[in-house]
C-alpha cells in the first residue's frame, strides 16, 4: 500500500488511530492477555492436574481435548453477536470467563475439572471470536493487521505471565489451584471497564439499515440460520476455503504447542523454573513477532506471511521434539515456534473477519475457531493413540507436523489477498451483492 511504513518491529501503528480506536484496542488487548494466561495455564499445570486425579501417562492430552469441546457451545454463543450486538455478547463472555476460571480452582475430580475448563473455553473462545470482529470493524483499514498482531501479542504476554507464576507452583498454597484464582480476578475488572464501550459503528449501521426496511422481526434462531445459510451457500467459496485451511493447520500445530510442558517434565525431566525460563524466552520473542507479522501482513500481504510462518514452524518444532534435548536449544526453537504460531493467528484471524460482510462476520469468525478447536482435539486424540507405538511424546507429536503443509497449499491456491483493502472492497470482490 502506497505510503505505508516499512515492516519491522514497532509499537506504533502504521496509520494514526483516534481516541476511540485506542480505547477499543486497549480493552480488547487486556481481555486477550487474561485469555492467554488461562489458555496457557492448562498446558503448564497439566502434569500436576493429571497426577492429582490419577490420569495415566500418555493420556494427559485427553484432558485438553475434552476441555476444548467447549467450542461447540462457544460457536452458537458468538453467532448471537450478529443478532444482539458485539458489546452485549462480550459482556456475557467476559463475566462467564471470570466465574468459570475461579470455579476451576475448586474442582474435586477430573470430570469436574474438565467440565469447568470446557466452560472457561466456551466463554473464552466466544470472546476471542467476537473480539476479532470488533477489531476488524473498528480499526482503520491500514492498521487491521497491526491491531490483530497487538491482540496476539497480548495473548502471548498473558501466556508468559502464566509461566512466570507457574515457577512458584511448588511453593504456593494449594498449588495449581491458586493459579486459577489469580487468573480469575482481573477479568472482573475488564468486565466493569467494558460497560463504558459503545456498540461498533458497522453493527449500528447494519441495525439502522435493517430497521429502515419494511420486514417483520426475525427471531435470534432465524438470524443464526440465515447467517449459516449465507456462509454455506452465498459465500461458499471463501467460507469452505477458510475452513479447509483452518482444519489441517490446527491438526498439525496443536499438540506441538499445548503438550510442550508435559514433554519437558515427563520426558526431559526439567523442573518448573526451567519450564518457566523456556516459556518466558519464547513468549518475549513471540511478542516481537506479533508486531512484525502484523505490520508485514498489512504492507506485503497476508499470504506471504502465512507461507513463511507455516514452513518455519514445521522446521523449528520438528527440530525441538526430535533434535538434541538441550534446554537452551529448546528455548530458542520454542521462541521461533511461538513467533510463527502468533503470525499465523494474525493472518487467519484477519481472514475470518475480512472475507465476509458485517451480517456474517461473527458467524464466520466463530466457525473458524470452532473448526480450529475440533481439529486440534482430533490431533490430541490421535497423539494419545500414537504415544505407545511411537515411543513417547516426541515422535508422536512431530509426526503430526507435516499435515500443516496441506493448509499451506490450500491457502496459497484459494484465499484472496486482503491486505490494504477496505472491508467493503473485499466484500465486493467476492462477486456477491450485499
Task: Explain what the structure shows.
By secondary structure, the protein is an all-alpha fold. The chain has one domain: MFS general substrate transporter like domains (Growth Hormone, Chain: A). It contains 19 helices and no strands. The protein has helices at residues 19-53, 60-68, 71-79, 81-84, 86-104, 110-138, 144-166, 176-194, 201-212, 220-234, 236-258, 260-268, 272-300, 302-322, 327-354, 358-389, 393-398, 404-414, 423-428. Helix 10 (220-234) crosses helix 11. The two termini are 26 Å apart.
Notable features of this structure?
Growth Hormone, Chain: A; single chain; mainly alpha; globular; disordered N terminus; 434 residues; 19 helices
Amino acid at each position: 500500500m502506497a505510503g505505508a511504513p516499512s515492516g519491522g518491529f514497532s509499537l506504533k501503528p502504521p496509520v494514526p488511530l483516534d481516541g476511540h480506536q485506542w480505547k477499543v484496542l486497549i480493552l480488547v488487548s487486556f481481555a486477550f492477555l487474561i485469555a492467554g494466561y488461562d489458555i496457557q495455564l492448562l498446558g503448564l499445570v497439566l502434569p500436576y492436574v493429571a497426577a492429582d486425579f490419577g490420569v495415566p501417562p500418555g493420556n494427559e492430552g485427553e484432558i485438553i481435548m475434552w476441555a476444548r469441546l467447549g467450542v461447540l457451545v462457544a460457536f452458537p454463543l458468538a453467532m448471537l453477536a450478529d443478532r444482539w450486538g458485539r458489546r452485549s455478547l462480550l459482556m456475557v463472555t467476559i463475566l462467564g470467563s471470570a466465574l468459570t476460571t475461579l470455579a476451576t480452582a475448586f474442582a474435586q475430580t477430573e470430570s469436574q475439572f474438565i467440565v469447568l475448563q470446557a466452560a472457561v473455553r466456551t466463554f473464552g473462545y466466544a470472546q476471542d471470536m467476537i473480539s476479532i470482529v470488533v477489531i476488524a470493524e473498528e480499526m482503520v483499514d491500514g492498521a487491521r493487521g497491526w491491531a490483530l498482531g497487538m491482540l496476539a501479542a497480548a495473548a502471548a504476554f498473558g501466556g508468559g505471565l502464566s509461566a512466570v507464576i507457574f515457577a512458584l507452583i511448588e511453593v504456593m498454597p494449594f498449588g495449581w489451584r491458586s493459579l486459577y484464582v489469580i487468573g480469575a480476578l482481573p477479568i472482573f475488572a475488564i468486565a466493569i471497564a467494558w460497560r463504558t464501550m459503545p456498540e461498533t459503528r458497522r453493527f449500528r449501521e447494519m441495525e439502522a439499515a435493517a430497521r429502515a426496511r419494511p420486514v417483520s422481526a426475525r427471531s435470534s434462531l432465524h438470524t443464526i440460520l440465515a447467517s449459516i445459510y449465507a456462509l454455506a451457500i452465498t459465500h461458499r467459496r471463501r467460507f469452505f476455503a477458510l475452513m479447509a485451511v483452518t482444519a489441517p493447520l490446527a491438526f498439525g500445530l496443536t499438540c506441538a504447542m499445548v503438550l510442550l510442558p508435559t514433554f519437558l517434565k515427563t520426558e526431559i525431566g526439567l523442573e518448573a523454573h526451567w519450564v518457566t525460563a523456556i516459556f518466558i524466552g519464547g513468549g518475549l520473542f513471540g511478542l516481537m513477532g506479533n508486531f512484525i507479522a502484523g505490520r508485514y501482513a498489512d504492507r506485503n500481504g497476508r499470504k506471504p506471511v502465512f507461507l513463511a510462518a507455516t514452513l518455519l514452524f514445521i522446521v523449528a518444532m520438528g527440530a525441538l521434539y526430535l533434535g538434541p534435548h538441550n534446554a537452551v536449544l529448546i528455548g530458542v526453537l520454542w521462541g521461533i515456534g511461538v513467533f510463527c504460531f502468533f503470525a499465523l493467528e494474525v493472518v487467519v484471524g484477519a481472514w475470518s473477519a475480512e472475507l465476509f460482510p458485517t451480517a456474517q462476520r461473527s458467524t464466520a469468525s466463530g466457525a473458524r475457531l470452532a473448526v480450529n478447536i475440533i481439529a486440534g482435539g482430533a490431533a490430541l486424540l490421535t497423539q494419545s493413540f500414537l504415544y505407545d507405538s511411537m515411543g513417547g511424546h516426541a515422535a508422536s507429536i512431530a509426526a503430526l507436523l507435516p499435515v500443516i503443509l496441506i493448509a499451506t497449499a490450500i491457502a496459497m491456491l484459494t484465499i484472496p489477498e486482503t491486505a490494504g483493502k477496505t472491508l467493503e472492497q473485499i466484500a465486493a470482490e467476492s462477486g456477491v451483492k450485499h
